[in-house]
């Protein structure tokens, strides 16, 4: 599913980003731009590789102990990553449930999320947005317990930081909240900041929700990877591969 969505990227996608920045400059503090984090501004594969590597070390599975980000063709396909590390299909199935349990205890933590790296051009684009005077709102399904690691990772990767100017970080109160429901409730908070002119997300469900809630906004889909739910993106949504372009 993720690879199919990458085919939505059309020539000239850079102009969409230019136009968004131009509109933000014209509206200044009246404008609001919303950004997801995982697989939108951040590549999570280093975090995923570290967890699978530690699982391999803990279970004496030498092949998994050498896991690297490139083994994760998709940021969410653990079985594929295990196969890419050299395990047979039988070995993958024998160890998958234990690996999944090991992953769940670590992935959604402040400590591990510090390993993420910025998507190409993401840091510069967040600063370009902040420089327009608009509100930049990071809207993420990460929970508040991950705030320290998230901000540390933003700082290490050079992104515009929450608390600087009109930069905000909206997170789930706890891990228990549903991501879809949280993002929908966050829409109201975004509307209170000003006019939402753009939203960026890798998840088709969330991108579609943004467009339905803010039909006048330009919604941008990051064609990286996603959870794999069979959701069709609305036609008006533009897909981009990353944020690197000439302003």
What does this structure look like?
The protein is α/β, with parallel strands linked by helices and 247 residues long. It folds into two domains: 2-44 and 116-240, 3-Layer(aba) Sandwich (Rossmann fold); 45-112. 43% of the residues lie in helices and 16% in strands. It has ten helices and eight strands. A six-stranded parallel sheet has the order 5-4-1-6-7-8, with helices on both faces. Strands 2-3 form a two-stranded antiparallel ribbon. Strand 4, helix 8 and strand 5 (167-172) form a beta-alpha-beta unit. Helix 4 packs across helix 5 and helix 9 (179-193) packs parallel to helix 10 (204-213). The longest helix has 16 residues, at 89-104.
Backbone shape: globular
CATH fold-level name of the largest domain: Rossmann fold
- For the record, what CATH class of the largest domain applies? Alpha Beta
Give the low-pLDDT segments: none
The CATH superfamily of the largest domain is known as HAD superfamily/HAD-like
Number of strands: 8
- End-to-end separation in angstroms reads 31 Å
In the CATH hierarchy, the architecture of the largest domain is: 3-Layer(aba) Sandwich
What distinguishing features does this structure have?
six-stranded parallel β-sheet, single chain, 10 helices, 247 residues, Rossmann fold, 2 domains, alpha/beta
SSE topology sketch:
Layout: H1 2-6, H2 13-27, E1 31-35, E2 42-43, H3 45-58, H4 78-84, H5 89-104, H6 110-113, E3 117-118, H7 122-131, E4 135-143, H8 147-157, E5 167-172, H9 179-193, E6 195-201, H10 204-213, E7 218-222, E8 238-240
